């Protein structure tokens, strides 16, 4: 039994190490155990269902809705250009879509494959197009850096690790679907929150570069997060219990990223 355990553990560790990949912008290593085409398909389906839900009101025909699409398309063009320059465009399959959604929630997100939603509640805080570019660049950076792939893969690795004492099983489609559903469901357990905080900071850095390439001043990102910090009501949760870094840490890190981002900035 001990020998079987050792062989199984070696097999799993070897498979996981062989499945490590490198992000395009920040160069971070991440685990890639899921079928990205499947992930994109599921995201596209979830996005379509979200937009068609009776609880979702998509805003069209307004200046803000037009701005969301304009800024989104600028960020998308910069993203495509950046990936082509890095020679990694073939590793991505973005089918961009940008929508402004009626909601008081201060939020925005980008699903794998480039499906973006901006909530109207965040528009007053963005202040201007550069502020909106900060938000959309950050969310799109999560997709560029393949954070959803990494998080789903981490869940698969944890599932497999829990089964080392039993029979080793391969990463089937059903396992990937389960991990993806958990990722978009109740979220990761507390032990995985550190990955999310690191992902947030990586998305800040990548987002700065992308917004700069799109013609938006990276310095506006600091101003946006200062406005965001001031707009928060109540006491923010302790950083170690949050999936996001503290405002102070985030702003400090952004300021350290700006010199590099400015190399890509052209008015």
From TrEMBL:
This is Peptidase M48. Residues 75-256 form the Peptidase M48 domain. It comes from Sphingobacterium pedocola. Keywords: Hydrolase, Metal-binding, Metalloprotease, Protease, Signal, Zinc. Gene3D superfamilies: Metalloproteases ('zincins'), catalytic domain. Binds 1 zinc ion per subunit. Its cofactor is Zn(2+). Residues 1-24 form the signal peptide. Belongs to the peptidase M48 family. InterPro entries: Mito/Outer_Membr_Metalloprot, Peptidase_M48.
